[in-house]
Design a protein that fits this description.
Blueprint lengths: L2 H5 L1 H29 L11 H30 L5 H17 L8 H9 L7
């Protein structure tokens, strides 16, 4: 795989997070709307699984966008690859998620984890 793709792995992670969030809005729109209209504060209670699922689904998308941004920033600012633990963590999350939920988007992060883990340098 070319160096240009490796340089874009942060963007790919961020776009995967964005896609996750868009899918969350589509799947959980009915659960998310009351959270917003009720004023956000303390709008989820134990046992309200639809709202809790919607919240964590959306939060995961935002966290993935943040990780993508940080990876991209590290690549641009330091010309070094991010710490290996980032790639291993994303790989572990992707594998565990794909095994537990085979019909899911967890498969999307596996190639991105592979890009993070391969080679000694992203530049050059």
């Amino acid at each position: 795989m070319g160096t240009g793709i490796k340089r874009q792995v942060g963007l790919l992670l961020a776009l995967t997070g964005l896609l996750h969030s868009v899918v969350g809005l589509i799947l959980y729109g009915d659960a998310l709307l009351p959270i917003a209209t009720e004023g956000l504060w303390n709008t989820m209670q134990e046992g309200d699984w639809e709202r809790l699922n919607a919240f964590w689904f959306m939060m995961f998308g935002f966290l993935l966008m943040l990780i993508g941004y940080i990876v991209s920033w590290v690549l641009k600012q330091t010309q070094l690859r991010p710490p290996t633990v980032v790639g291993w963590s994303i790989l572990a999350i992707g594998i565990v998620g794909a095994v537990i939920m085979p019909i899911s988007g967890f498969w999307l992060v596996l190639p991105q984890a592979w890009l993070l883990l391969r080679g000694k340098s992203f530049i050059g």
